[in-house]
Structures are given as structure tokens and as C-alpha cells.
Design brief:
By secondary structure, the protein is of the alpha/beta class. The chain has 3 domains: 4-115, Beta-Lactamase; 125-291, Alpha-Beta Plaits (2-Layer Sandwich), CATH 3.30.70; 322-338 and 365-557, TIM Barrel (Alpha-Beta Barrel). It is built from 20 helices and 22 strands. The strands form 4 sheets. An 8-stranded mixed β-barrel has the order 13-14-16-17-18-19-20-21. The model is unreliable at 214-218 and 553-558 (pLDDT under 50).
């Protein structure tokens, strides 16, 4: 659109529009005569009230200094719409230095401003849900924290993660998954106050900024209570069914919260603490809420346990027990998961949960895992010598899922002359998804030598189908938390069915953990699950009792 050229003349101290080109009508909706002497109104009357004084002041200030001016402002168009204009001009003075007139040109900048606004919006909002993205959320959080420092009125950040969304996305397709995220975002907004900020972090993760109130000033407990109530409202809202076409879906969410400024007084730390709280909620079984708490370890106790644990192997206090892994159709035992226990001098048999966290914090997890690998290889070799077609399965912690450590596993297998397919390595879903590039050639070597690989606790992390294709594990182990409420829990049933289908279509065996009832077994068999383990078959057994069970000579071992 061409610009409208104009001249303002100074007549005895009064500025009037002396001339104006016809292009002004296309820009403002008014013909030129409207603004010329004798017309209906002066041009400045259509400048937006919020911009008028600033524009006039800027123009005359520049002309007074003898400088050209450039202004951007809004007008109210003849049709009532608001338009943006760019004005450029300069004043011309007479011989006595008095400003005589001003020549300028006006351009319609509305389209450019709207394009800029759209680009800014796209840069700061999620394209799918139109929620603010993390960058915009962090700007709001920085302002909220600054306000909290000045006023003492704190607030909270909630980190919301949909449980098992990837299973739904992979099972029903991305179109359904995207629509589910759109509906979830709507429910989150509806469950929060108007001045709270709901943002999409990415994937199936959302962030919520809860502003403080006068009642919460100086009271961390009041903010914590408010965050807990909002989290409860969110979980209730998300617990209602979602309808996408003919599909009815149910989801749950894990929520972590961090308070500001009491937990942290920077946006980065507040978000980090909320993330830590989120994963605490997930570790507790998902569909839950956790408020961030500063990690506290009894250092003295940890050091005492570590000192005793360091010599436990030498004193033959570490033992392995074995839980049968069963073919669900034939009930035949095909393998056994080796599980570590610590038999203390006092006669107590400690579970891994009581000492492995200390081992991880003190660096003892590597030698302990090496011991487990060696003992499992020895036992698997003995089963071979008894002509038992069994494999031993061992859990490898993230600290051991490294090239040097895994080469040691291959060396141990060779040392005992054990066929590689008689050992299965179990790694957690999280470890599998964060596999380093250094491990990829080693994983290929595993497959080449026949070593079995299983993804443990499947469904509790964030799986990538591309990563699963790269790893090509033999087995996906469905976490017991999904099996627990089968077949009555419809959501768990759908997700387990999806996981079984996924494993079958990718050419993997599916193993269900924690089977305790005949009803669970029937459901799993009907839906094509291959393997299982759980108390329905057997608790973890000392090696003598397990061998007796497999050979049918349990009474001899008793």
C-alpha cells in the first residue's frame, strides 16, 4: 500500500493539515477532506487515545531539535478497527528559526505488526496446544520470583507428567495422541485460576505457575497447602474419561511441586526441584503428588553400612536368590532372575532396597554388580552341566551400563565357558533410552554372540521406538505396577495390551512381572504375553531350592 504524503503548516502558532494525498483514504478509511481545513476532524483525533499524547510530543520534540522523526502508533479506522501506522517526517524552519511546516509520509504497518505478533506468539507458545512454552513460562516465573522477593508473597510451580502417554501415542497413533494433549491442556487451564500460568514443557509434560496471595505471605505452609489442593483438582479433572472419536481414553498424571522463594529463589532451581519432586512421585507408583523436599541422608549411617558392605563379599554375606521365569502357556520354567540379598552377621536377610542405594552413593555398586555377574555365570554353568535348558537373568544398574563394565561381563562369560544365550542382562527403561553412542557397537556384539537383553520396568520411563529398534532387546518386562490391578483396572488393561502388542510386533518376547492371581494370568495369556514371574508361581528361592524345583526333587532339598 503506498504511503500518504502530507504537510502540516504553522499558521500563527496553530498547526493545521495543509495538504494530504488521496492515499490517506485507503489507510484510514476517511477521504483527505476530512482532515483538511474545514473538514470534520483533525487528524490527531483518530490517533488511538493511548498513543495520542506520546506521538504528538515525540513529533514536536524532534522538530524542535531540528531532527527528523519516526513514530509508530495506532489509529482507529473509519470502520472501527485498530490499525498500526508508521510516520516519518521532518520540520522546516524559516529564516528566523521558527518552525514553518512539516512534511511527512504515513504508511499502513498493520500487516507487518500482525505478522510480527504472530511470529512472537509462535516463538513463545506451543504450536499444538497454544499454551505458553517453557521460554515464556520462565519469563513469568522470573517475574513472580522477583515479586516474591519484594513482597514476601510466595508461590509454587507444579510439574505435571502424563503417566504412560507414550504407550497411548504408540498404540493409537499420533493423531489421537495430539488430540489427547489438546484436551488435557484445556482441562489443566479450567482447573486453575485465571491468573495462574499453564504451559507445555514438551511432549506430555506441563508446567503450572501458581501465584501467591496476600494470605500466603511469609507462610510456606499456606503455599504448600494451596499447591496440594490444585494438584488434587488436576488429578480429579484428568481422571475423567477423554473421548476422541469413538475412542475412550483414561489417563493419570504424576505431579511434582516446588515452592518459591522458600525452596529456591531462581527460576532454574525452582524448575529443577519440581522435576525432582515429579520423579519422586513416579518412583512412588505414579498417579501421585510429591512436594520437593531437600534430600537428606544419614551420612554416619551410610558410612557405617558402606564399611560393613565393603567386606560383605569376603565374609560370604552376599547371596543370590532366584525367582522362576515361566512360559505362561506351558507353565515350564525357562529361566530365573538372580536377586541379591545381604545376610548380615546378626542373621538378618536384607533386601536390595536396604543397602543398594548406599552402594550407589558410595561407589560400591560396581564391585557388587561384578560379583553378581560372576555368581550368576557360575550358577548358569552348573545348570548347563545338569542339562537344564535355563538362563540366568541379572539386573545391571545404570552405573554398570558402560562399555568397560559390559566388556567385563563378556569376559566373565568366556572365563566360565558359558554359552552367551544362557545369560540375560536386564537394564531399566531409563538406562536403555539414554544409551550412549559408545555402547552401540557393544550392543551389536551382544546380539552377535547371542547374549540376551531385556528392558526392565517397561512402561515406567520414556521409551523411544527408534531406540528400541536400535537396541533390539529380546524381552520387554512389563512393570508389576501395571499387572497389580488386572483385569479390573480398564486403563491398566489397555496399556498392558498395548505393550504386549508392541513387543510382539517388534519381534520381542513380553514378560509380565508380579503375577499373583489366576485372573491376571488368564488376561495375559489371552492377550499374547509369552512369559511371566511372580508369587503365583514362586517367590525368590535359594539356589538349592530352585534347582530342586526345576528338577522335581524339592523334597530332597528340604
Amino acid at each position: 500500500m503506498p504511503g500518504a504524503v502530507y504537510r502540516y503548516a504553522n499558521r500563527d502558532g496553530e498547526w493545521i493539515m495543509e495538504s494530504l494525498s488521496d492515499a490517506i483514504e485507503a489507510i484510514t478509511g476517511y477521504p483527505p477532506a476530512t482532515f483538511l481545513p474545514g473538514g470534520e476532524r483533525p487528524f490527531d483525533s483518530i490517533i488511538h487515545p493511548e498513543d495520542r499524547d506520546a506521538v504528538i510530543a515525540a513529533v514536536f520534540d524532534a522538530m524542535t531539535r531540528g531532527e527528523p522523526y519516526a513514530v509508530e502508533y495506532r489509529i482507529v479506522h473509519a470502520d472501527g478497527s485498530v490499525r498500526w501506522l508508521n510516520g516519518y517526517g521532518a520540520g522546516v524552519s524559516g529564516e528566523d528559526g521558527t518552525l514553518r511546516f512539516a512534511d511527512g509520509v504515513i504508511f499502513d504497518a498493520t500487516e507487518r505488526k500482525e505478522t510480527e505478533a504472530r511470529l512472537t506468539h509462535l516463538a513463545l507458545h506451543d504450536a499444538l496446544t497454544d499454551l505458553p512454552n517453557r521460554a515464556l513460562f520462565q519469563e513469568h516465573l522470573n517475574l513472580a520470583i522477583a515479586h516474591a522477593r519484594r513482597t514476601g508473597v510466595g508461590g509454587a510451580v507444579l510439574f505435571v507428567d502424563l503417566d504412560d502417554f507414550k504407550m497411548i501415542n504408540d498404540g493409537f497413533g499420533h493423531a489421537v495422541g495430539d488430540e489427547l494433549l489438546v484436551q488435557v491442556s484445556s482441562r489443566l487451564r479450567e482447573s486453575c485460576r485465571a491468573d495462574d500460568v499453564v504451559a507445555r514443557q514438551g511432549g506430555d509434560e506441563f508446567l503450572i505457575l501458581l501465584g501467591g496471595s496476600a494470605e500466603s505471605a511469609g507462610s510456606g505452609e499456606a503455599v504448600a497447602d494451596a499447591a496440594q489442593k490444585v494438584a488434587a483438582n488436576l488429578r480429579t479433572a484428568l481422571g475423567l474419561p477423554f473421548h476422541i472419536g469413538d475412542t475412550e481414553l483414561y489417563v493419570t498424571a504424576s505431579i511434582g511441586a516446588s515452592l518459591y522463594p522458600s525452596d529456591a529463589d531462581t527460576a532454574e532451581l525452582v524448575l529443577k526441584h519440581a522435576d525432582v519432586a515429579l520423579y519422586s512421585a513416579k518412583d512412588a507408583g505414579r498417579d501421585g503428588y510429591r512436594l520437593y523436599a531437600e534430600p537428606k541422608h544419614d551420612t554416619t549411617r551410610d558410612l557405617a553400612i558402606a564399611a560393613r558392605l565393603r567386606n560383605a563379599e569376603k565374609r560370604d554375606e552376599l547371596v543370590l536368590v532366584y525367582q522362576p521365569m515361566v512360559d505362561l502357556k506351558t507353565s515350564c520354567i525357562v529361566g530365573a532372575e538372580a536377586l541379591i540379598r545381604w545376610k548380615t552377621p546378626e542373621g538378618d536377610l536384607l533386601s536390595p532396597a536396604e543397602f543398594l542405594p548406599v552402594a550407589e552413593r558410595t561407589g560400591l555398586i560396581r564391585p557388587i554388580t561384578a560379583w553378581v555377574v560372576e555368581q550368576a555365570c557360575i550358577q548358569a554353568r552348573r545348570w548347563c552341566d545338569l542339562d537344564l535348558d535355563l538362563y540366568a537373568s541379572i539386573n545391571v544398574p545404570p552405573a554398570y551400563w558402560q562399555p568397560a563394565s559390559m566388556r567385563r561381563v563378556l569376559a566373565t562369560i568366556s572365563d566360565f565357558g558359558l554359552p552367551a544365550d544362557r545369560l540375560m542382562i536386564e537394564i531399566t527403561e531409563q538406562s536403555a533410552m539414554t544409551q550412549s553412542e559408545e555402547l552401540e557397537p557393544l550392543v551389536a556384539e551382544f546380539r552377535g554372540r547371542g547374549l540376551r537383553l531385556a528392558i526392565d520396568d517397561f512402561g515406567t520411563g520414556h521409551s523411544s521406538l527408534s531406540r528400541l529398534r536400535q537396541l533390539r532387546p529380546n524381552t520387554l518386562k512389563i512393570d508389576r505396577s501395571y499387572i497389580r490391578d488386572l483385569p479390573n483396572d480398564k486403563e491398566a488393561a489397555v496399556l498392558v495390551e498395548i505393550m504386549i502388542t508392541l513387543a510382539n510386533r517388534l519381534g520381542m518376547q513380553c514378560l509380565a512381572e508380579g503375577i499373583e492371581t489366576e485372573e491376571q494370568l488368564r488376561f495375559l495369556v489371552e492377550h499374547g504375553c509369552h512369559l511371566g514371574q511372580g508369587f503365583l508361581y514362586s517367590r525368590p528361592l535359594p539356589v538349592s531350592r530352585f534347582t530342586a524345583l526345576i528338577t522335581g526333587a524339592e523334597e530332597q532339598a528340604a
